[in-house]
TrEMBL record:
GO terms for molecular function: DNA-binding transcription factor activity; sequence-specific DNA binding. This is AraC family transcriptional regulator. Residues 192-290 form the HTH araC/xylS-type domain. It comes from Candidatus Acutalibacter pullicola. Keywords: DNA-binding, Transcription, Transcription regulation. Residues 1-16 have a biased composition (Polar residues). Residues 1-22 are annotated as: Disordered. Transmembrane segments: none annotated.
Length: 296
């Protein structure tokens, strides 16, 4: 039987754990279909490049939304709280995530001259119609394909491509304007603390007061942070997070619906089934059967 707050796969978590890649090679790639694979609000220390490959994708951050048509990309700096959703039913993305230390240590000239300026930035849309942005997208794609194929010397090819992309990003004053303000940094830090608290305690009864206390702020300030940055309220966010966890378990385990609901904070099995049907359009077990059938 599942225990409350049992660790899950990175899909559906706030702060992605464990770190992407390995300590000696901190790079990882993903190819996802959304909403079949959900990418809810989360953050990480790594940098991320997202390319829309099918239909339209919306990359929401605490500072605003980036809408991507096929062939367009987005670059997300460290600790940018973000969510990736489909604009019209479903979409496809490719994602490349890497830690900036992959390019050099903080004492190195490479870091100080090229990495540090990008490290201070937030998020930016990349268009194939703008030459310098197309160059960035090209090198990110070279790195993605090198990782995907893993031919001889792919580690060197990946690093060289990422160095070329970051070099071009570091030169752009337009990109540097996306640096987070002090107020935005403070709000982001508070959100990180509250989301981390929810992640660690979603299986228990939680109140807005407890969520606010985790960031040492008032309930009204907690509500303001969620509304202004995530366009929702803490109770709705907690509900959706629990449902996302339940989705993951339905597809990755054979546990009963009641056990999964209890592990995700829904103590009443009937309420869990009713809420799941309202949000997803089917019962938990129907959801499992449908997705298992598509994978056969």
């Amino acid at each position: 039987m599942l225990e409350k707050n049992q660790p899950f796969s990175p899909t559906g978590s706030q702060r992605e754990q464990p770190p992407h890649g390995t300590p000696s090679f901190p790079v990882e790639i993903f190819e996802l279909s959304i909403p079949a694979s959900t990418v809810p609000w989360h953050w990480h220390e790594d940098w991320e490049y997202v390319l829309c490959t099918r239909n339209r994708v919306k990359c929401s951050t605490a500072q605003g939304e980036i809408v991507l048509d096929p062939g367009y990309g987005a670059f997300l700096g460290p600790r940018v709280i973000h969510e990736i959703t489909a604009e019209d039913g479903s979409c496809g993305i490719r994602s490349l995530v890497f830690h900036p230390h992959f390019l050099g240590s903080e004492e190195s000239l490479i870091w100080q001259k090229y990495v540090a300026p990008v490290q201070e930035c937030g998020a930016i849309k990349l268009s194939p119609d703008i030459p310098w942005q197309w160059d960035c997208m090209h090198f990110f794609c070279v790195a993605w394909h090198a990782m995907n194929q893993q031919g001889a010397g792919y580690e060197i090819e990946t690093r060289q491509a990422l160095e070329n992309a970051v070099y071009r990003l570091s030169l752009q004053t337009e990109f540097r304007k996306n640096s987070l303000s002090e107020k935005a940094r403070r709000n982001t830090q508070r959100l990180e603390q509250m989301l981390q608290f929810i992640q660690q305690n979603y299986g228990e009864e939680l109140t807005v007061s407890q969520i606010a206390d985790s960031a040492a702020i008032s309930e009204s300030e907690c509500l303001r942070c969620f509304r202004n940055s995530l366009h929702t309220v803490p109770s709705r966010y907690l509900r959706d997070f629990r449902l996302q966890k339940a989705e993951t378990l339905l597809l990755s385990t054979q546990e009963t619906s009641a056990n999964i609901g209890a592990a995700c904070g829904f103590s009443d099995p009937a309420y869990f089934t009713k809420l799941f049907r309202e949000v997803k359009g089917c019962t938990p077990l129907e959801y499992r059967k449908r997705h298992n059938a598509t994978r056969m």
